Fold this protein.
Amino acid sequence: MESCLANRLSRFIDLTDGEKKFVRYMEEDERDLTRRKSIVTIGDRVEHLWVLKFGWVIARSREAGGRSSILRIYLPGEVMGLSEIGTGTAIHSIEMLTDGCICPFPRSAVAEMYDKTPRLAALLTSLGSLDQLDLRERVFQLARLSAVERVSHFLLTLQDRLALANSGRSRRFHLPLTNAQIGDYLGLTDIYVGRILKDLVAAGHIVVEQRHVTIHDAESWAEEVGYRTIFGRIDTSWYPDPPG
Amino acid sequence: MESCLANRLSRFIDLTDGEKKFVRYMEEDERDLTRRKSIVTIGDRVEHLWVLKFGWVIARSREAGGRSSILRIYLPGEVMGLSEIGTGTAIHSIEMLTDGCICPFPRSAVAEMYDKTPRLAALLTSLGSLDQLDLRERVFQLARLSAVERVSHFLLTLQDRLALANSGRSRRFHLPLTNAQIGDYLGLTDIYVGRILKDLVAAGHIVVEQRHVTIHDAESWAEEVGYRTIFGRIDTSWYPDPPG
DNA sequence: CGGTCCCTTGAATGTGATCAATTCGAGTGG
DNA sequence: CCACTCGAATTGATCACATTCAAGGGACCG
């Protein structure tokens, strides 16, 4: 099974042959992109969704006054473009954070899904709903958590998400973001992010070397900063039966 | 047409008879609720979606340390529960902000929609996508805007959203939120919200009396604080054809 | 009348931003 | 092998936006 989407979706439901075929069709097209390469520019019409095969991708808002923030970090296996499907126009940009590979498939394929593979359609709806939960958590964090808490939650969440992507939690992971980008994600300045990371290292929570982070005791750290994972399983009980 | 959902959906597509019937079925059940009445408590299983017929509703996150924030304000005609559909479990609470009326319909009805009224399913997907856009904008605002800008954007956005709900923009509207609640929505303290509102009044942007706000010159104010509406139309071009 | 809820005002405090200078490191070209 | 550059991390000093704490006032309601 070389399909990373099938791989990911299989965590939730056992795909039928028809569904597998459809997934393959969605991943038919494949594009390798290099770091900083733009996928969507603000104002673009968006006629596709994308599966991110590997690499990291960010969605960013740019606004007046040079202020902008990173709205979403996409990890391998995730579906990109769900927030643009409604309007068909990008109000945020999407670009490669690292080298990587994406599989575009037309938005109209979603219409087909309703008919041919309704469970996949339901799954896509569920993924959109998870994106909403993540955004809500971020709203809370930005609104009510201190800078230290935000950085801590950020790293702990990343560890959890990477565990999902790589099917296996590891204490050490690659973090291809600059301090400035972390700041854009968390609503902080690059300088302050640097100071906080230094403090966290001093406190013995993490080790940082060459864009790699090692988390020492995730459990107790999570406890300390009030972090709890939100990646509960998807509930498929309401899904329609697979055809055939 | 007394159905507010049908009313709302009709802004996007002309409903067929079959679709109208389905919408009516979704709104069959109807519950009047009073202010502060809880609809969903954190941890609840969520087997329904709801259409808000009238009144205001808020989704709130509660966390350790008494800190919490308001994640979503639902206005009449909007669909509630889209962020819970994926996990089937509430990690945020939902409660009435004012007296109002909601129409619950089972999540399983969505599965039916894929088959019977795929365009409604697509519309629901689109609505979820709009919710994402709104959340993304809020992430940006919380991350990068000053308190004055946040309050300004908040009021201007509300005016735009109410215009959609009431089909008609008006300079004056009811704002059933306390300063503390506005603060929970914007990541500020009640006290500072009060000060800012006072400043905005002094600057001649708004008038506030008895929980009612009048916006003087929305255009120039929006210009001044860099606000732009994100409520672009829904793009239905990819929707499947209606059956029959 | 007391009680609750909400808004208001003032003064002090602190978290995180801002500004500016330096250091570090990887890559490049001589 | 050594200069050079460019991007990023670091450090110190200062500043300000928003919070916190505390007290008082107004509206509503039993």
Q: What stands out?
A: Chain B touches chain A through 65 residues (CB under 8 Å). The mean pLDDT of chain B is 92. Chain B is about 40% helix and 20% strand.
